[in-house]
């Protein structure tokens, strides 16, 4: 159980869920065996680096890598800070009863309303998983809560502004992101309503954060989210800078030249990079070799499916939920963004 | 990651951002000038968050006597002394947060310079499309021989118009271009290049102009080239924009190295 008794309330359970204790490791491996594997992986990396990276490495490429890396981190930082502040404020100051008042009783109708609410309320994806868990615990239909979980990090105002800043002069990218993400969230919610079984999902129980110490709860939630999201932003920055500087341009151009492959590659990249939605538009904008549709797929998939979300969702709602919901979301996200890209971009 | 480490890390990130925006102009190597109005408040928020955390948690950790009589700025928290001790686990940050040290280290230790010829040559395969002209079209230019200072984007836009025969506003006009030197692809010629940034250095694309008739200065040095537009030798829409150089002056790197 993930008991949550501290100030930060909904936010802190995921600390010990990255990776969740039972995820991908059926038996406990002996420490010695793990060390051997770790060393084998390091050795393989060293060999690969020697073969591919060392011949091309010169001071200028190292400089360029560092510049791109710092640039992506620096420009994403303000959006991260303000987004996290707003979502922490919502967690700390919006009472949970509010959600039950605004959402319709019928689950089928509650799904699109929950999606639309995601457009108004900022929330980082790391925050939206616990928030969705809290909604379910307070009697909101799981399908509606899941729609909110998918929509909130993808289409909230901060993310939309960040996308507009990252893609100046192409409002169709902003519109495409908004429409595609909302459609995916609502479709996933309805699909869960139609086909989902109650026993698949483990609804977390959650004590209420009372009025006392709200500021304290706000402060802790904000710091916690910056630490989490910031760490993953750095991972994304490293990956983007490496693609920008190290990966041979011909490869990237080769992949980028095949439409379906480039969409799929960027979708998988979004999953692997696990960038916070407030920051991912800047990484997408830096992948200039790829088509707008592929970059849209990156923006739609990223906030809905990525490594940290897989870990978080498994931890909160159970493995039986995650192995069904995550593939569903991924397929929907790729499909809808490909169609939206065809129509809009 | 302990809470103290998290607070200190927040302060360090804030300080790094302050350093590149207020203390130096280094942020211009990474992002557009307007970003300072976002970066500074974000840095202030980070530092405030870290300092409040340090102050409160230090007070909590020094025991109940400190907890009750703290007073002052954080007065509106009704915070039971010792409340934190039971939930030490919840306050610990994730290990991935240590990665946030990397950009801070890079900013202070490496101070990465603006992108230059390396990025320009890597991105050369991608043909930069010239920026669209302003809605009312380009103005006419004086043809009296006085050099007209012009951005690379404007030169390429006008050159593109001239190549496609829409409007040859460049013919006979002396222009002055500012950029850094990149080696040309055919050996003999070289290019003066400026990187165009849509949002940050990560998406920079090169705007190169081939220079004829002048000796190549060292690669990556900044120059001002005065010359006239060179009509393309082959094909109207070559995508290559050229200049007959008349004179050249080495300059210091401009404050904002991007366009």
From TrEMBL, chain A:
The keyword Transmembrane helix applies. It is found in: Cell membrane. InterPro entries: DUF318 (IPR005524), UPF0718 (IPR052923). The chain crosses the membrane at residues 35-53, 65-90, 110-132, 144-168, 174-195, 226-246, 258-276, 296-316, 322-344. The keyword Cell membrane applies. It is a multi-pass membrane protein. GO terms for cellular component: plasma membrane. Its main location: membrane. Belongs to the UPF0718 family. This is Permease. It comes from Actinomadura rudentiformis.
TrEMBL record, chain B:
InterPro entries: DUF1980, DUF1980_C, DUF1980_N. It holds the Pfam family DUF1980. Residues 64-75 have a biased composition (Gly residues). Keywords: Membrane, Transmembrane, Transmembrane helix. Residues 10-120, 169-258 form the DUF1980 domain. Residues 76-89 have a biased composition (Basic and acidic residues). This is TIGR03943 family protein. It comes from Actinomadura rudentiformis.
């Amino acid at each position: 159980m993930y008991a949550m008794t501290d100030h930060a309330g909904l936010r802190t359970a995921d600390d010990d869920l990255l990776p969740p204790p039972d995820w991908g490791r059926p038996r406990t491996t002996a420490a010695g065996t793990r060390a051997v594997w770790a060393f084998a992986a390091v050795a393989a990396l060293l060999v690969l680096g020697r073969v591919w990276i060392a011949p091309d490495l010169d001071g200028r490429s190292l400089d360029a890598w560092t510049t791109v890396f710092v640039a992506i981190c620096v420009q994403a930082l303000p959006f991260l800070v303000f987004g996290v502040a707003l979502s922490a404020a919502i967690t700390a100051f919006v009472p949970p009863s509010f959600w039950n008042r605004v959402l319709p009783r019928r689950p089928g109708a509650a799904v699109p309303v929950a999606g639309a609410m995601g457009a108004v309320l900022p929330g980082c994806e790391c925050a939206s998983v616990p928030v969705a868990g809290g909604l379910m615990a307070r009697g909101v239909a799981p399908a509606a809560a899941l729609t909110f979980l998918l929509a909130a990090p993808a289409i909230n105002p901060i993310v939309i502004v960040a996308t507009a800043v990252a893609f100046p002069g192409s409002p169709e990218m902003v519109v495409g992101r908004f429409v595609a993400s909302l459609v995916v969230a609502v479709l996933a919610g309805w699909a869960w309503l139609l086909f989902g079984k109650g026993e698949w999902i483990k609804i977390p129980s959650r004590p209420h954060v009372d009025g006392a110490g709200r500021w304290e709860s706000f402060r802790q939630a904000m710091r916690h989210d910056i630490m989490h999201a910031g760490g993953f932003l750095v991972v994304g920055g490293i990956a983007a800078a490496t693609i920008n500087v190290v990966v041979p341009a011909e490869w990237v151009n080769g992949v980028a030249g095949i439409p379906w492959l480039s969409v799929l590659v960027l979708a998988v990249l979004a999953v692997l990079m696990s960038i916070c939605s407030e920051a991912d538009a800047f990484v997408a904008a830096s992948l200039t070799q790829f088509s707008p549709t592929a970059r849209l797929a990156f923006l739609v998939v990223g906030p809905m499916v990525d490594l940290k979300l897989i870990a978080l969702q498994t931890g909160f709602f159970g493995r039986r939920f995650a192995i069904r919901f995550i593939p569903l979301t991924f397929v929907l996200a790729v499909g809808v963004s490909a169609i939206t890209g065809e129509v809009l971009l | 990651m302990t809470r103290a480490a998290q607070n200190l890390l927040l302060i360090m990130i804030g300080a790094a951002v302050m350093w590149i925006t207020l203390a130096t102009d280094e942020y211009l190597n990474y992002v557009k000038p307007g970003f300072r109005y976002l970066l500074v408040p974000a840095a202030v928020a980070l530092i405030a968050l870290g300092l409040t955390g340090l102050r409160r948690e230090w007070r909590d950790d020094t025991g109940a006597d400190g907890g009750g009589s703290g007073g002052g700025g954080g007065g509106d928290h009704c915070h039971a002394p010792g409340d934190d001790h039971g939930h030490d686990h919840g306050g610990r940050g994730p290990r991935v947060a240590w990665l946030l040290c990397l950009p801070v280290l890079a900013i202070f230790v490496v101070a990465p310079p603006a992108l230059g010829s390396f990025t320009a040559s890597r991105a050369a395969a991608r043909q930069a499309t010239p920026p669209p002209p302003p809605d009312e079209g380009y103005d006419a230019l004086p043809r009296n021989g006085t050099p007209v200072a012009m951005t690379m984007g404007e030169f390429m836009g006008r050159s593109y118009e001239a190549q496609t025969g829409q409007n040859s506003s460049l013919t006979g006009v002396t222009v002055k271009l500012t950029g850094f030197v990149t080696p040309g692809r055919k050996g003999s010629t070289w290019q003066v290049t400026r990187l165009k940034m849509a949002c940050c250095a990560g998406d920079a694309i090169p705007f190169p102009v081939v220079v004829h008739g002048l000796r190549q200065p060292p690669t990556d040095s900044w120059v001002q080239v005065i010359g006239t537009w060179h009509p393309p030798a082959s094909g109207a829409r070559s995508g290559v924009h050229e200049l007959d150089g008349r004179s050249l002056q080495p300059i210091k790197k401009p404050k904002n190295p991007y366009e």
